[in-house]
Amino acid sequence: MELKEIKELIKLVSEAEVSEVEVEKGDFKIAIKKVEEKTTIVQAPAVQAAPVQVTIPAAPAAPAAPVAPAAPSTSSNLITIKSPMIGTFYKSSSPDKPAFVNIGDEIKPGSVLCIVEAMKLFNEIESEVSGKIVKILVENASPVEYDQPLFLVEPM
């Protein structure tokens, strides 16, 4: 495996928000695991007894572009709504339906914000707070991790 291919795998791990990638080519095996602030690469040919471990800083994940520009005057009072599970984030119930919420929408407890699909089950994520959606932090149809921030809400 070439250094260029390894760099592409590292970039994939940091951008795709996946936590682990393993690739095996013949007698060469590489595993890239994302751990908080760093990405660890463990590579070893299948015939080698001891793996070689290299640790490099992870590239910061690119934030999702907001649907519309909206910047609150003070960000310290914002509430972060996080994903309660691992899965795929969807803004609407189907591609031809409108989004559950958009930037600027007012929400209240029980309002459906999005859907997170996990193992072919579509779970509606409901708000537990009242407020106004200030920012949507995840792009439609992208993977999300447990406790990953999804929305920023200005409380009302």
Structural summary, described in words:
This protein has 1 helix and 12 strands; from the N terminus they run H-E-E-E-E-E-E-E-E-E-E-E-E. It folds into 2 domains: 3-57, no CATH class; 75-155, RNA polymerase II/Efflux pump adaptor protein, barrel-sandwich hybrid domain (OB fold (Dihydrolipoamide Acetyltransferase, E2P), Beta Barrel). The longest helix has 14 residues, at 3-16. The strands form 3 sheets. Strands 1-2-3-4 form a 4-stranded antiparallel beta sheet, covered by helices on one side. The protein has a 4-stranded antiparallel beta sheet with strand order 5-12-10-7, with no helix packed on it. With 156 residues, the chain is mainly β. It has one helix spanning 3-16, and strands at residues 20-25, 28-35, 38-45, 52-57, 79-82, 87-90, 106-107, 112-118, 121-126, 131-136, 142-144, 149-155.
